[in-house]
Protein backbone atom coordinates (compact mmCIF):
# COMPACT_ATOMS: atom_id res chain seq x y z
CA UNK A 1 0.00 0.00 0.00
CA UNK A 2 1.30 3.52 -0.71
CA UNK A 3 0.75 7.31 -0.95
CA UNK A 4 2.53 10.10 -3.15
CA UNK A 5 2.51 13.00 -5.66
CA UNK A 6 3.44 16.68 -6.20
CA UNK A 7 1.56 19.50 -4.49
CA UNK A 8 -0.64 20.32 -7.50
CA UNK A 9 -3.94 19.65 -5.71
CA UNK A 10 -3.12 21.75 -2.66
CA UNK A 11 -1.56 24.42 -4.87
CA UNK A 12 -4.76 24.59 -6.90
CA UNK A 13 -6.84 24.96 -3.76
CA UNK A 14 -4.53 27.66 -2.45
CA UNK A 15 -4.76 29.48 -5.77
CA UNK A 16 -8.53 29.41 -5.44
CA UNK A 17 -8.24 30.81 -1.95
CA UNK A 18 -5.97 33.56 -3.19
CA UNK A 19 -8.88 34.69 -5.35
CA UNK A 20 -11.19 34.42 -2.37
CA UNK A 21 -8.93 36.49 -0.16
CA UNK A 22 -8.47 39.13 -2.83
CA UNK A 23 -12.21 39.55 -3.16
CA UNK A 24 -12.70 37.68 -6.42
CA UNK A 25 -15.44 35.16 -7.14
CA UNK A 26 -16.38 32.63 -4.50
CA UNK A 27 -14.47 29.38 -4.16
CA UNK A 28 -17.87 27.71 -4.12
CA UNK A 29 -18.18 28.44 -7.82
CA UNK A 30 -14.58 27.57 -8.68
CA UNK A 31 -14.02 24.28 -6.86
CA UNK A 32 -14.39 21.10 -8.83
CA UNK A 33 -15.50 17.79 -7.37
CA UNK A 34 -11.97 16.88 -6.32
CA UNK A 35 -10.76 16.61 -2.75
CA UNK A 36 -9.51 14.22 -0.10
CA UNK A 37 -11.83 11.69 1.58
CA UNK A 38 -14.00 12.55 4.56
CA UNK A 39 -13.52 9.89 7.24
CA UNK A 40 -15.42 9.18 10.46
CA UNK A 41 -16.02 6.13 12.64
CA UNK A 42 -18.24 4.65 15.29
CA UNK A 43 -16.93 2.01 17.68
CA UNK A 44 -17.55 -0.71 15.11
CA UNK A 45 -17.72 0.88 11.65
CA UNK A 46 -15.69 3.24 9.48
CA UNK A 47 -17.54 5.71 7.25
CA UNK A 48 -15.86 7.15 4.16
CA UNK A 49 -17.25 9.92 1.93
CA UNK A 50 -15.36 9.89 -1.35
CA UNK A 51 -16.39 10.58 -4.91
CA UNK A 52 -19.80 9.25 -5.94
CA UNK A 53 -20.52 7.32 -2.74
CA UNK A 54 -20.53 7.21 1.04
CA UNK A 55 -19.20 3.86 2.29
CA UNK A 56 -19.49 1.89 5.49
CA UNK A 57 -16.32 -0.18 5.93
CA UNK A 58 -15.63 -3.15 8.21
CA UNK A 59 -12.47 -2.31 10.24
CA UNK A 60 -11.55 -6.00 10.55
CA UNK A 61 -11.53 -6.77 6.84
CA UNK A 62 -11.39 -3.41 5.06
CA UNK A 63 -14.41 -4.41 2.97
CA UNK A 64 -17.47 -2.33 2.36
CA UNK A 65 -20.66 -3.12 4.29
CA UNK A 66 -22.85 -0.78 2.28
CA UNK A 67 -22.60 2.23 0.05
CA UNK A 68 -24.89 5.18 -0.66
CA UNK A 69 -26.29 5.71 -3.19
CA UNK A 70 -26.40 2.31 -4.84
CA UNK A 71 -25.81 3.75 -8.28
CA UNK A 72 -23.20 6.43 -8.90
CA UNK A 73 -24.22 9.74 -10.44
CA UNK A 74 -21.94 12.00 -12.46
CA UNK A 75 -23.58 14.99 -10.81
CA UNK A 76 -23.07 13.88 -7.21
CA UNK A 77 -19.85 13.71 -5.18
CA UNK A 78 -19.10 13.37 -1.48
CA UNK A 79 -16.03 14.60 0.41
CA UNK A 80 -17.29 16.09 3.69
CA UNK A 81 -16.64 13.89 6.73
CA UNK A 82 -19.85 12.16 7.88
CA UNK A 83 -21.34 13.08 11.26
CA UNK A 84 -21.99 9.89 13.23
CA UNK A 85 -24.67 9.04 15.79
CA UNK A 86 -26.32 5.77 16.81
CA UNK A 87 -29.53 6.63 14.95
CA UNK A 88 -28.43 8.62 11.90
CA UNK A 89 -25.34 9.30 9.80
CA UNK A 90 -25.43 12.80 8.31
CA UNK A 91 -23.36 13.64 5.25
CA UNK A 92 -23.37 16.52 2.78
CA UNK A 93 -22.58 16.41 -0.92
CA UNK A 94 -20.85 18.74 -3.37
CA UNK A 95 -24.19 19.69 -4.87
CA UNK A 96 -26.74 21.13 -2.49
CA UNK A 97 -27.97 18.41 -0.15
CA UNK A 98 -27.54 16.84 3.27
CA UNK A 99 -28.55 13.21 3.75
CA UNK A 100 -29.60 11.29 6.83
CA UNK A 101 -28.64 7.62 6.51
CA UNK A 102 -29.28 4.53 8.58
CA UNK A 103 -25.90 3.55 10.13
CA UNK A 104 -26.55 -0.18 9.79
CA UNK A 105 -27.94 -0.39 6.26
CA UNK A 106 -27.08 2.90 4.55
CA UNK A 107 -30.75 3.33 3.67
CA UNK A 108 -31.86 6.90 3.13
CA UNK A 109 -33.88 8.32 6.05
CA UNK A 110 -34.20 11.91 4.87
CA UNK A 111 -32.85 14.50 2.45
CA UNK A 112 -32.45 18.24 2.96
CA UNK A 113 -31.91 20.28 -0.19
CA UNK A 114 -30.88 23.91 0.18
CA UNK A 115 -32.38 26.60 -2.01
CA UNK A 116 -29.11 28.17 -3.15
CA UNK A 117 -27.50 25.12 -4.73
CA UNK A 118 -24.49 25.55 -2.42
CA UNK A 119 -22.25 22.56 -1.71
CA UNK A 120 -21.13 21.22 1.66
CA UNK A 121 -17.35 21.06 2.11
CA UNK A 122 -17.20 20.93 5.91
CA UNK A 123 -18.89 18.15 7.86
CA UNK A 124 -22.12 18.56 9.78
CA UNK A 125 -22.31 18.48 13.60
CA UNK A 126 -24.82 16.38 15.53
CA UNK A 127 -25.80 17.77 18.92
CA UNK A 128 -28.59 15.90 20.68
CA UNK A 129 -31.58 15.85 18.35
CA UNK A 130 -30.24 18.56 16.04
CA UNK A 131 -27.88 18.84 13.10
CA UNK A 132 -25.88 21.99 12.33
CA UNK A 133 -24.12 22.53 9.01
CA UNK A 134 -22.57 25.33 6.98
CA UNK A 135 -22.33 25.56 3.19
CA UNK A 136 -20.14 27.44 0.72
CA UNK A 137 -22.66 30.26 0.33
CA UNK A 138 -21.99 31.09 3.99
CA UNK A 139 -25.31 29.73 5.26
CA UNK A 140 -25.62 27.90 8.59
CA UNK A 141 -28.70 25.73 9.15
CA UNK A 142 -30.21 23.74 12.02
CA UNK A 143 -32.14 20.56 11.22
CA UNK A 144 -34.07 17.97 13.18
CA UNK A 145 -31.86 14.87 13.33
CA UNK A 146 -34.75 12.42 12.99
CA UNK A 147 -36.55 14.10 10.07
CA UNK A 148 -34.12 16.48 8.38
CA UNK A 149 -36.66 19.27 8.70
CA UNK A 150 -35.50 22.77 9.63
CA UNK A 151 -35.73 23.45 13.37
CA UNK A 152 -38.73 25.74 13.98
CA UNK A 153 -37.63 29.25 14.86
CA UNK A 154 -34.06 28.69 13.65
CA UNK A 155 -33.78 30.92 10.61
CA UNK A 156 -30.60 30.28 8.61
CA UNK A 157 -27.65 32.53 9.40
CA UNK A 158 -25.54 33.80 6.52
CA UNK A 159 -21.90 34.81 6.79
CA UNK A 160 -20.18 37.07 4.30
CA UNK A 161 -18.33 34.23 2.56
CA UNK A 162 -17.95 30.46 2.33
CA UNK A 163 -17.98 28.14 5.32
CA UNK A 164 -15.59 25.22 4.87
CA UNK A 165 -15.46 24.21 8.53
CA UNK A 166 -17.62 22.12 10.87
CA UNK A 167 -19.77 23.99 13.43
CA UNK A 168 -18.74 23.69 17.08
CA UNK A 169 -21.60 23.43 19.61
CA UNK A 170 -21.18 24.42 23.24
CA UNK A 171 -24.50 24.25 25.10
CA UNK A 172 -26.67 27.04 23.75
CA UNK A 173 -24.00 28.53 21.45
CA UNK A 174 -22.82 27.42 17.99
CA UNK A 175 -19.41 28.67 16.81
CA UNK A 176 -18.64 28.87 13.10
CA UNK A 177 -15.58 30.07 11.19
CA UNK A 178 -15.75 31.57 7.72
CA UNK A 179 -13.64 32.63 4.79
CA UNK A 180 -14.98 36.13 5.44
CA UNK A 181 -12.31 36.32 8.21
CA UNK A 182 -14.65 35.99 11.19
CA UNK A 183 -15.61 33.65 14.00
CA UNK A 184 -19.37 33.80 14.64
CA UNK A 185 -21.18 32.87 17.86
CA UNK A 186 -24.80 31.93 17.14
CA UNK A 187 -27.76 31.13 19.37
CA UNK A 188 -28.21 27.35 19.13
CA UNK A 189 -32.02 27.63 19.15
CA UNK A 190 -32.55 30.53 16.76
CA UNK A 191 -29.21 30.86 14.89
CA UNK A 192 -29.31 34.56 15.66
CA UNK A 193 -25.91 36.23 15.81
CA UNK A 194 -24.79 36.70 19.42
CA UNK A 195 -21.38 38.17 18.61
CA UNK A 196 -18.53 37.91 16.16
CA UNK A 197 -14.78 38.28 16.19
CA UNK A 198 -13.40 40.58 14.99
CA UNK A 199 -16.27 43.03 15.52
CA UNK A 200 -16.91 45.15 12.43
CA UNK A 201 -15.94 48.79 12.25
CA UNK A 202 -14.04 49.11 15.51
CA UNK A 203 -10.85 51.18 15.26
CA UNK A 204 -8.91 48.45 17.03
CA UNK A 205 -10.09 45.59 14.82
CA UNK A 206 -7.13 43.32 14.02
CA UNK A 207 -6.18 42.44 10.47
CA UNK A 208 -7.59 38.93 10.18
CA UNK A 209 -7.21 36.35 7.40
CA UNK A 210 -9.65 33.77 6.11
CA UNK A 211 -10.43 30.95 8.56
CA UNK A 212 -10.80 27.55 6.92
CA UNK A 213 -10.40 25.04 9.74
CA UNK A 214 -12.80 24.14 12.53
CA UNK A 215 -11.92 25.98 15.75
CA UNK A 216 -11.06 23.99 18.87
CA UNK A 217 -13.02 24.88 22.02
CA UNK A 218 -11.49 24.10 25.40
CA UNK A 219 -12.64 25.50 28.76
CA UNK A 220 -14.25 28.53 27.14
CA UNK A 221 -11.29 29.33 24.87
CA UNK A 222 -11.50 29.07 21.08
CA UNK A 223 -8.21 28.17 19.42
CA UNK A 224 -8.04 28.73 15.67
CA UNK A 225 -5.62 29.48 12.87
CA UNK A 226 -5.95 32.03 10.11
CA UNK A 227 -4.56 32.78 6.69
CA UNK A 228 -2.72 35.75 8.16
CA UNK A 229 -0.09 33.37 9.57
CA UNK A 230 -1.41 33.53 13.12
CA UNK A 231 -2.83 31.11 15.68
CA UNK A 232 -5.31 32.70 18.09
CA UNK A 233 -6.63 32.02 21.59
CA UNK A 234 -10.00 33.78 21.92
CA UNK A 235 -11.80 34.01 25.28
CA UNK A 236 -15.50 33.43 24.53
CA UNK A 237 -16.63 35.19 27.70
CA UNK A 238 -14.69 38.43 27.29
CA UNK A 239 -14.52 38.07 23.49
CA UNK A 240 -10.93 39.18 23.62
CA UNK A 241 -7.76 37.59 22.26
CA UNK A 242 -5.55 36.17 25.00
CA UNK A 243 -2.56 35.66 22.74
CA UNK A 244 -1.47 35.08 19.16
CA UNK A 245 1.32 32.87 17.85
CA UNK A 246 3.05 33.77 14.55
CA UNK A 247 3.58 30.98 12.03
CA UNK A 248 5.62 30.73 8.84
CA UNK A 249 2.62 30.06 6.62
CA UNK A 250 -1.17 29.74 6.59
CA UNK A 251 -2.84 27.43 9.10
CA UNK A 252 -5.30 24.96 7.60
CA UNK A 253 -5.14 22.38 10.39
CA UNK A 254 -7.37 22.52 13.45
CA UNK A 255 -5.38 22.86 16.70
CA UNK A 256 -5.64 20.02 19.20
CA UNK A 257 -5.31 20.41 22.96
CA UNK A 258 -3.92 17.41 24.83
CA UNK A 259 -5.13 16.94 28.42
CA UNK A 260 -2.22 14.64 29.17
CA UNK A 261 0.65 17.01 28.35
CA UNK A 262 -1.33 20.24 28.50
CA UNK A 263 0.06 21.25 25.09
CA UNK A 264 -1.81 22.78 22.16
CA UNK A 265 -0.56 21.10 18.97
CA UNK A 266 -0.98 22.38 15.41
CA UNK A 267 0.83 22.68 12.08
CA UNK A 268 1.13 25.09 9.16
CA UNK A 269 1.46 24.76 5.40
CA UNK A 270 5.25 25.04 5.61
CA UNK A 271 5.31 21.73 7.49
CA UNK A 272 6.03 23.21 10.91
CA UNK A 273 4.43 21.26 13.74
CA UNK A 274 4.45 23.11 17.06
CA UNK A 275 3.31 22.63 20.64
CA UNK A 276 2.24 25.70 22.62
CA UNK A 277 1.34 26.52 26.18
CA UNK A 278 -2.43 27.07 25.81
CA UNK A 279 -2.46 29.75 28.53
CA UNK A 280 0.32 31.93 27.18
CA UNK A 281 0.98 30.84 23.59
CA UNK A 282 4.63 30.20 24.45
CA UNK A 283 6.29 27.65 22.18
CA UNK A 284 7.21 24.37 23.92
CA UNK A 285 8.72 22.68 20.87
CA UNK A 286 8.73 22.71 17.08
CA UNK A 287 9.29 19.93 14.53
CA UNK A 288 9.60 20.15 10.74
CA UNK A 289 7.89 17.55 8.54
CA UNK A 290 8.43 17.08 4.81
CA UNK A 291 5.23 18.69 3.54
CA UNK A 292 2.27 20.92 4.39
CA UNK A 293 0.16 19.98 7.41
CA UNK A 294 -3.50 20.18 6.42
CA UNK A 295 -5.29 17.64 8.62
CA UNK A 296 -5.41 17.89 12.39
CA UNK A 297 -3.07 15.66 14.43
CA UNK A 298 -4.47 12.61 16.21
CA UNK A 299 -3.32 11.65 19.72
CA UNK A 300 -2.60 8.22 21.13
CA UNK A 301 -0.16 6.17 23.23
CA UNK A 302 2.57 3.78 22.20
CA UNK A 303 2.65 0.37 23.86
CA UNK A 304 5.28 1.66 26.32
CA UNK A 305 2.92 4.47 27.41
CA UNK A 306 4.58 7.28 25.44
CA UNK A 307 2.10 10.01 24.55
CA UNK A 308 2.30 10.70 20.81
CA UNK A 309 0.74 12.68 18.00
CA UNK A 310 0.38 11.21 14.51
CA UNK A 311 0.95 13.90 11.87
CA UNK A 312 0.18 13.50 8.17
CA UNK A 313 2.25 15.53 5.70
CA UNK A 314 1.00 16.49 2.25
CA UNK A 315 4.12 15.46 0.37
CA UNK A 316 4.99 13.00 -2.34
CA UNK A 317 8.73 13.63 -2.13
CA UNK A 318 9.50 12.32 1.36
CA UNK A 319 7.97 10.90 4.51
CA UNK A 320 4.25 11.57 4.83
CA UNK A 321 3.42 10.10 8.24
CA UNK A 322 5.09 10.97 11.54
CA UNK A 323 4.71 9.86 15.15
CA UNK A 324 5.97 12.59 17.50
CA UNK A 325 6.63 12.34 21.21
CA UNK A 326 4.29 14.97 22.64
CA UNK A 327 6.44 15.67 25.65
CA UNK A 328 9.61 16.41 23.70
CA UNK A 329 8.61 17.09 20.11
CA UNK A 330 11.02 14.42 18.89
CA UNK A 331 10.36 11.37 16.74
CA UNK A 332 8.71 8.55 18.66
CA UNK A 333 9.11 6.19 15.72
CA UNK A 334 10.70 6.13 12.29
CA UNK A 335 8.75 8.29 9.80
CA UNK A 336 6.77 6.36 7.21
CA UNK A 337 6.23 6.83 3.49
CA UNK A 338 2.79 5.50 2.70
CA UNK A 339 2.32 4.51 -0.93
CA UNK A 340 -0.67 3.94 -3.18
CA UNK A 341 -1.28 1.58 -6.06
CA UNK A 342 -2.25 3.14 -9.39
CA UNK A 343 -3.93 1.08 -12.10
CA UNK A 344 -4.49 2.37 -15.63
CA UNK A 345 -7.15 0.87 -17.86
CA UNK A 346 -8.33 1.04 -21.44
CA UNK A 347 -11.99 0.13 -21.65
CA UNK A 348 -12.19 -3.00 -19.46
CA UNK A 349 -8.53 -3.96 -19.77
CA UNK A 350 -5.76 -3.19 -17.30
CA UNK A 351 -2.89 -1.49 -19.13
CA UNK A 352 -0.48 -0.96 -16.28
CA UNK A 353 0.04 -0.68 -12.56
CA UNK A 354 2.59 1.02 -10.34
CA UNK A 355 3.09 1.95 -6.71
CA UNK A 356 4.27 5.36 -5.57
CA UNK A 357 4.01 7.76 -2.63
CA UNK A 358 1.25 10.38 -2.48
CA UNK A 359 0.25 13.31 -0.29
CA UNK A 360 -1.96 12.84 2.76
CA UNK A 361 -4.22 15.82 3.41
CA UNK A 362 -7.00 14.18 5.44
CA UNK A 363 -6.56 14.05 9.22
CA UNK A 364 -5.59 10.58 10.48
CA UNK A 365 -8.19 8.67 12.49
CA UNK A 366 -7.82 5.89 15.06
CA UNK A 367 -10.29 3.05 15.58
CA UNK A 368 -9.18 0.24 17.85
CA UNK A 369 -5.60 -0.68 16.92
CA UNK A 370 -5.88 0.81 13.45
CA UNK A 371 -4.54 4.13 12.22
CA UNK A 372 -6.65 5.22 9.24
CA UNK A 373 -5.37 7.42 6.42
CA UNK A 374 -7.47 8.89 3.64
CA UNK A 375 -5.99 9.26 0.16
CA UNK A 376 -7.31 11.16 -2.85
CA UNK A 377 -4.99 9.37 -5.29
CA UNK A 378 -4.57 5.79 -6.36
CA UNK A 379 -6.93 2.84 -6.27
CA UNK A 380 -7.88 3.13 -2.58
CA UNK A 381 -9.36 6.08 -0.69
CA UNK A 382 -8.60 4.52 2.70
CA UNK A 383 -5.58 2.77 4.21
CA UNK A 384 -5.29 1.04 7.57
CA UNK A 385 -2.00 0.73 9.43
CA UNK A 386 -1.27 -0.94 12.74
CA UNK A 387 -0.98 2.10 15.03
CA UNK A 388 1.83 0.51 17.07
CA UNK A 389 4.03 -0.78 14.24
CA UNK A 390 2.81 1.46 11.37
CA UNK A 391 2.73 -1.65 9.18
CA UNK A 392 0.07 -2.01 6.48
CA UNK A 393 -3.05 -3.91 7.44
CA UNK A 394 -5.39 -3.37 4.50
CA UNK A 395 -6.41 -0.95 1.77
CA UNK A 396 -10.07 -0.32 1.03
CA UNK A 397 -10.88 -0.65 -2.66
CA UNK A 398 -14.53 0.19 -3.37
CA UNK A 399 -16.22 -2.56 -5.35
CA UNK A 400 -17.70 -1.52 -8.68
CA UNK A 401 -16.63 2.12 -8.43
Model description:
The protein is mainly beta. It is 4% helix and 40% strand. The protein has two helices and 33 strands. The strands form nine sheets. The protein has a four-stranded antiparallel sheet with strand order 1-2-3-4, with no helix packed on it. It has a four-stranded antiparallel sheet with strand order 5-6-7-8, with no helix packed on it. A four-stranded antiparallel sheet has the order 9-10-11-12, with no helix packed on it. A hairpin with a 3-residue loop joins strand 18 and strand 19 (230-235).
Break the fold down into its secondary structure elements and pairings.
Blueprint (H helix, E strand, L loop, with lengths): L7 H14 L5 H4 L7 E4 L4 E5 L2 E5 L6 E5 L14 E2 L4 E4 L4 E5 L6 E6 L11 E3 L2 E5 L4 E6 L12 E2 L9 E3 L2 E6 L3 E6 L5 E5 L18 E3 L2 E6 L3 E6 L4 E7 L9 E2 L6 E4 L4 E5 L6 E6 L9 E4 L5 E6 L8 E5 L13 E8 L2 E9 L7 E3 L2 E5 L7 E5 L5 E5 L5
Antiparallel strand pairs: 1-2, 2-3, 3-4, 5-6, 6-7, 7-8, 9-10, 10-11, 11-12, 13-14, 14-15, 15-16, 17-18, 18-19, 19-20, 21-22, 22-23, 23-24, 25-26, 26-27, 28-29, 30-31, 31-32, 32-33
Amino acid sequence: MTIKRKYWLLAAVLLILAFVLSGCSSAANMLTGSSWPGIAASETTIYVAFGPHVYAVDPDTGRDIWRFPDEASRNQTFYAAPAVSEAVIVVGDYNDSLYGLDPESGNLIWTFKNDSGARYIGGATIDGDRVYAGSVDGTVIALDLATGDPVPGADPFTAGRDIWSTPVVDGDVVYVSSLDKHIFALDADTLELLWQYPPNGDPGDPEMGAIVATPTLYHGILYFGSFNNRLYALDTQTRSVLWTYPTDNWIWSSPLLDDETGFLVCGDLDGNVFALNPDTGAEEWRFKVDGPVVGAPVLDYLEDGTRIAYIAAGTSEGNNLYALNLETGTLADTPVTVEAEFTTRFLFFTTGQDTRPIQIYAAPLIIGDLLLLGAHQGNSPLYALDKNTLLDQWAFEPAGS
